[in-house]
Structures are given as C-alpha cells and as structure tokens.
Design a protein that fits this description.
alpha/beta; Rossmann fold; 2 domains; 34% helix; binds nicotinamide-adenine-dinucleotide; Asp/hSer_DH_NAD-bd; Asp_DH; L-Asp_DH; NADP binding
Length: 260
C-alpha cells in the first residue's frame, strides 16, 4: 500500500483523488491546497505541511503550481518520495541540482509524468546510450488555451485577432520557455528530462498559437539520431478551446503514478 498525499485540489488533483481511491494499492492520507474547500473537509492549507505530517507518507503528488516545488520540494524529499506534476519548475538548474542531491542523500524517488509526451521511454533509452542527437517538441494549441507571461502573452493577444493563420509564439530552448509558459509546457519539461543527454538547454521547443485548433491540442515530437535516423510523432489530444490540458493527458498522468 502506497500512502499518498496530494498537493493541489484543482482539476488534476480532484481527478487523481477520485481515480486513486479506486486503486487497492494506494491510500490517500492527506490533501493540501492553497485554500480550504467548502465541498471537502479533508483539504488542509499548506501551512500544515511539516516534517511530522510528512513522516507517515510514502509519496507526495504535487499538482498545484511550480512554486510548490520551490517552497516545499526539499522538505518533502527529506521525508518521502516526490511526484512533480509541474516539472517546468525543473528548468531552474539550481532547484534541479538541489532536489537531486537531497533525493540522493535521503534515498528518495523523484518522479515526473510523461504527460502528453509520446515515446518518452524510447527517447530515454536513446539518451542513455548517447544516440539521441536532437529533439524538437512542438505544441500547437488554440489561442485561448494559453496562460503566458510577457512577451508571449502580448504575442498571443495579437494571434487571437487572426481568423486562420497560426502564429509561432516561441522557438528556442525548453529552458527559456518554461518560465514564460509554466502551465502549458510541462510536457516539454518532461521531454527535456527524458532526453537527459540534451537536457533543458539542448531540447528545442516550438510553441504555436493556432485559431484552427478548436478540437485538439497537437504535440509533435521529432527525435533525431545518427546517419539520418528520425522519428516524428504527432499526437492529437482532444481538447476544447480554453482547456489548458487535453482530456487524455489526465489518464496519462494517472498511468505514470500507477507505474511507480
Ligand atoms: N505534467 C503534465 O502533463 C500536466 C498536465 C496538467 C497540469 N499540469 C500541472 O499541474 C498543476 C495543476 O493543474 P490543474 O489543471 O489541476 O490546475 P488548477 O488550476 O485546476 O488547480 C491548481 C490547484 O492548485 C492550487 N494552487 C495554484 N497555485 C498555487 C500556488 N501558488 N500555491 C499553492 N497552491 C496553488 C489552486 O488553488 C488549485 O486548487 C499545474 O501546475 C499544471 O501546470 C501538469
């Protein structure tokens, strides 16, 4: 039996609580959130996260905000394993290095979901043997599905005025994009972690705002290896305009947790 605490009582948190309660191998013993919930009295506020409350938990699942990992990641790893649902926070190399070293010292697992990233295991294997030469992850969503920081916010506002034409909001390293779109590109951060030989600086991110994406989020993954080796996958993830996360990503997330 894995004793689990969930941090974040939003869309993903509520989904995971409902599904994990059906699993005989998991027991949800704590739910933490920024605010209390009128509908669920089990939800406690973040100020009650401390070593003594963490001591009887095996795994903390963060599905709230990248800031939670900055604020509580070390304390959690000193006491239990950590599943990071907002891995865009790991683009901060100082945080990444610190969590890795605390995890090693206390012999804890640090896990990230593959999210909407297709082929993570294959890419991980190529990275480990050094045959992964380039990885490009392109995400294409409806303009209303983005939550962005400046200057991408302003670019996307202009993209909203277009009826047909897609706008490239960003092309560059995953590291550069994560702080500008922390809620939208967890999938790319997962890719940068799988592609361990390239990392956040070496994996290329392309973010496209497209008014034609009224039914899907599209994630394209182009992996390149030696002698012209290439794999290109296109994942069409059903999602209505305004949805930050595609429906099937919720189930992918659940499988990643069950897979531990
Ligand atoms: N890895 C993936 O594939 C993937 C997929 C979907 C969502 N996510 C990430 O998971 C997290 C939750 O997603 P969601 O769709 O459930 O979001 P949501 O907005 O529905 O819920 C977030 C919850 O966390 C709380 N919260 C928000 N900011 C907080 C903060 N700074 N400190 C403390 N609590 C805070 C909110 O009160 C809310 O209850 C987000 O960071 C999102 O980017 C990752």
């Amino acid at each position: 039996m894995v004793r689990v605490a969930i941090i974040g009582y939003g869309h993903l948190g509520k989904f995971l609580i409902e599904k994990l309660r059906l699993e005989p191998d998991f027991e949800i013993v704590k739910i933490w959130n920024r605010t209390k919930s009128e509908e669920n009295e089990e939800v406690q506020t973040l100020d009650t996260i401390n070593a003594s409350n963490l001591s009887n938990i095996d795994l903390v699942i963060e599905v709230a905000h990248p800031k939670i990992i900055h604020d509580y990641g070390q304390l959690i790893l000193e006491n239990c394993d950590l599943f990071i649902g907002s891995p865009t926070c790991l683009a901060d190399q100082k945080l990444f290095d610190n969590l890795k070293s605390v995890g090693t010292k206390f012999n804890r697992k640090i896990l990230v979901p593959s999210g909407a990233f297709w082929g993570a295991n294959d890419i991980q294997k190529m990275a480990e043997v050094g045959t992964l030469k380039n990885l490009t992850v392109t995400m294409i969503k409806h303009p209303s599905s983005f939550k962005l920081g400046s200057p991408l916010f302003e670019k996307n506002e202009e993209a909203k005025l277009k009826k047909e034409e897609a706008t490239v909001l960003y092309e560059g390293s995953v590291r550069g994009l994560c702080p500008l779109a922390p809620n939208n590109v967890n999938t790319m951060a997962g890719g940068a972690i799988a592609a361990s030989n390239l990392g956040f600086d070496g994996v290329t991110a392309k973010l496209i705002s497209d008014p034609k994406m009224t039914d899907w989020h599209v994630v394209e993954v182009l992996a390149e290896g030696p002698d012209g080796f290439q794999v290109l996958t296109t994942r069409k993830n059903p999602a209505k305009p305004g949805a930050v996360t595609g429906q099937l990503t919720y189930f992918s997330f659940l499988s990643s947790i069950k897979g531990i």
